[in-house]
Amino acid sequence: MHRFTQLDDTPLSHRLRTSRPALQVLLFLGLLIVSGLLLATEPGYRQTDVQLCIPVEFILFALTLLGVALFHNYTLQVALGGLATITAFKLAFTGFTAGPGLLGLASHLGHEWVLLANLLGLLLGFALLARHFEDSHVPEILPRYLPGGWLGGFTLLAMIFVLSSFLDNIAAALIGGTIAAGVFRYKVHIGYLVAIVAASNAGGSGSVVGDTTTTMMWISGVGPLEVLHAYVAAGTALVVFGIPAAIQQHRFQPVIRDVPVGTQVDWTRVGIVAIILVAAVIANLFVNLYFKNLADSFPFLGVAVWIAILLTRGLREPEWRLLPDTFKGTLFLLSLVLCASMMPVDRLPPASWYSALSLGFVSAIFDNIPLTALALKQGGFDWGVLAYAVGFGGSMIWFGSSAGVALSNLYPQAKSVGAWVKSGWHVVLAYVVGFMVLLLTLGWHPHDAAPTQPVGAVNSGHSALFCQVTQAIAGPCHSGRES
Asked: pTM of this prediction?
């Protein structure tokens, strides 16, 4: 949203001198395409020939993520280039899970379209919601009720945490980012932005309506109480990352408690925000309680949000001009999600607490939705521990969760992996500490079977943590010899 960025008054001559990154991006995408062709076009090709230590698709995906990290001003171009390369590779050589060629691609898209449509509807819809909330002037008045000092910043993170327990984490992150803009007069430290995303992801980890992954577990037959203990880890993590982040923000820009004279709350806009949020919560609960079998066949959540937006436009017109820029950020996320869905992941490491810990780190760069689906199919996990790992783990990198991508649309300066990791170091620490506190207090209580079907054969034995992470991403590595 343009209010959170500064106008670009850079001289034209300087812009021309600094336009070289665009050429670098083009060269990088060319390298991505050429690498895919070189790795695939061996004489006498068979599908099993396209196997190094990890499948070629993962090499291409890793190159895409590397490009996103290096060229954070061209993330959309890199993501679309990576998606095109991976799609072309699978069309030409390995095929898709549903089959080879265009028919396989069409079937794959038919399976993924509900998830993509929901993300599209939520990210665009909640961007309009966030502007309604900003224009209601509540963020300008809120500092009057927050504590002074760094405790004010921590209190705001705690509020986001609670909001996310019953709202979608995208909405919680956007509302939190909008409030932070008002409370800190648009001067928000990147470390605090990381904490906003972490609070929204942590808050939803123990609630079956707070995150897509926990909702998936609920649909598959995991009871709400079976993920509730994730809050032991999530609450611990909130303290571990929340206090340093609040101190970072206080040193960068303290809470501004002075409210401009004449500021009044636009209660109509507050009501619109409430209607949109209630529509999302009711749709989520209603579908998952009474129509679980239809949840994967239609984007009910995204449609419910947009019905509420259109029904309330007569009260206050949404700021439609936000949509083009927001759509670019949304298209970036959808590209990465679609890339991740094409990865040949068909199994996870044997279920254990350390494999769950590993999956949290994997989810920072790999979509946590297919990881959760595989874990549900495999069974043998402690669902609360897994919910915390895959839900909170995506906070460690800005594109690791939809909440991070949504917030980066508000604050483009957050689209730097280096700055995100450097300033948000406390989130990585919080993830590990929260995980260990949960493990040491309540232990590891796995379910012997998958919630929807019996557990199939899993690999036996134990291996090092690094190997488990590698297997979680790419399956087992093979040596040059045939077994």
From this structure: 0.76
**What's the confidence (pLDDT) of residue 450?**
65
Helix axes 383-393, 190-204, angle to 10 degrees: 150
For every residue of 55-70, which 3-state class applies, written as one string?
A: EHHHHHHHHHHHHHHH
Is the separation of the CB atoms in 153 and 245 below 8 Å? yes
* CA–CA distance, 217 with 476 (Å, rounded to integer): 26
How far, in whole angstroms, is CA 475 from its chain's centroid? 23
Question: Residue 8 in 3-state DSSP?
Answer: coil
Phi, psi of 11 (to 5 degrees): -60, 150
DSSP-based three-state secondary structure for 475: coil
3-state secondary structure of 293: helix
DSSP string, 254-299: ----PPPTT----HHHHHHHHHHHHHHHHHHHHHHHH-GGGTTTS-
Which uninterrupted H or E stretch holds 243? Answer: helix 230-252
Cα dist from 194 to 99, 140, 404, 417, whole Å:
40, 22, 8, 11
| DSSP letter string, 194-237 | HHHHHHHHHHHTT-TTTSHHHHHHHHTT--THHHHTHHHHHHHH
pLDDT average, residue stretch 327-344: 87
To 5 degrees, how large is the angle CA 216–CA 218–CA 223? 150
Give Cβ neighbours of residue 422 (< 8 Å, ≥ 6 apart): none
453-458 average pLDDT score: 35
Instruction: Quote the CA–CA distance of 416 and 73 in Å, as a whole number.
Output: 8
DSSP state, residue 99: B
Q: Please, are residues 35 and 81 in contact by the beta-carbon 8 Å criterion?
A: no
Q: What is the pLDDT of residues 250-271, one digit of tens each?
A: 999 998 877 777 788 999 999 9
Q: Which two tokens stand for residue 422?
A: 């450097």
| Residue 389, token pair as written in the block | 């790992």
Q: Which are the contacts of 317, defined by CB distance < 8 A and separation ≥ 6?
A: none
pLDDT, residue 107, reads: 93
CA dihedral 102, 104, 110, 115 (to 10 degrees): -110
